[in-house]
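Entry:
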Amino acid sequence: MENKNLAKKIYELLGKAENISSVTNCMTRLRVHLRDKEKAKLDEIKKTEGVSGIFDNAGEIQIILGPGKAAKVTDAVKEILKAEGNLKIGNAENLHREIREKNATPIKLFFKKIAGIFLPLIPGFIACGLITGCTGLAIKISPEIASYPIVQLLAVAGNAVFWGMNLFVGRNAAEVFGGSPILGGVLAAIISHPGLANITLTDSPLVPGRGGVISVLAVAAFGAFIEKNLRKIIPDMFELFLTPLFTVLIAGAAAIFILQPAGGIISATIGMAVTGAIESGGAFTGFILGGCWLPLVMFGIHQAFTPIHVDLLANYGVTVLLPILAMAGAGQVGASVAVYFMTKNNFLKKTVASALPVGIMGIGEPLIYGVTFPLGRPFIAACIGGAFGGAVQASFPVGAATLGISGIPLAAATDNIPVYLLGVVVAYVTGFVATKILGFDDPEEE
């Protein structure tokens, strides 16, 4: 179904403009808030061609459409609503945010802040990670090209997001915590500046970038706190000058003497804990992580891992966690393929067929909410597939030089492509076999 036709049908089944209070989207979902959920024909929406599933998150109806399609259908729905004149499009996102924050727990709000800091960086991670991976692969095949200017330029481009990581995180963190973004960037620049290496305090030279993003998050949050409180006490006529000045001086001093050293200890502890657990636990650690990842995604806890990935990338150049966790999506692909061959329900077959391509590319939500999770046991089978795939990744272990991608595309950004692909195949096969063994209640054709 074309996007405009799909948008029109969804609009009508939701109860039209008089029943829709807000509409927005994420990467894979059309998200709406309804005035009366009982007036919406959600079961009919689930059966609509092009819809992979529906998820009710604390009153927010999330219609899973897949990457690209979600944004286009959302825009089309907004155009219909705008034509009806019953929705203030400009306020929809604010209303969406207010309702979500009202229903959110402190833990969910914390995870949301983490996501708000790092999600804007994902396109940079993807681009630079793939450039780094492809360039590294080309150099392995032909080592002599490493001296070519174009290859050296590509190496610089691939490293760009990591070179500027602290500045980007500082800018985003300050904004999320309610401060001025540029001051967050300045504070991050202070603790990352190479000139720190020439300064000795308490008989020890300062270390530029010590603590990585952990230190940056701490100083940006503290800087935002200082800035907001200074605005309350500094007279308006001096506020423009004194607030940023004192924010940088106070938060900068706290960063150098307290926050950065503490962040360095935390960062080193996290790095040693993660790498140590994988090195010592090997396949067992990978089995547990790969098997538990899908439930963590369902509960939204996965966002807490993003700073860990970023810190590992900053300290080691790769994250050994991502290839392990990516196996959860591969296990789900295998489980969904089994569902496709086992089911006699034509609509379910179409759902699997439409969601599989993006699942193979690492976008798992359409398969989670449209196939495995609603069926129950295939979701467990997908976790089993992820566990065995994760065990393969952790046995070597495999590192990834990027974030934001998964599935087959991640192979290009790993330091051991054959092993990564072996893990993907193991997850596919195990997820498929586990689904065949566990079975599921095949929904009747309607």
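Confidence is low (pLDDT under 50) at residues 88-93.
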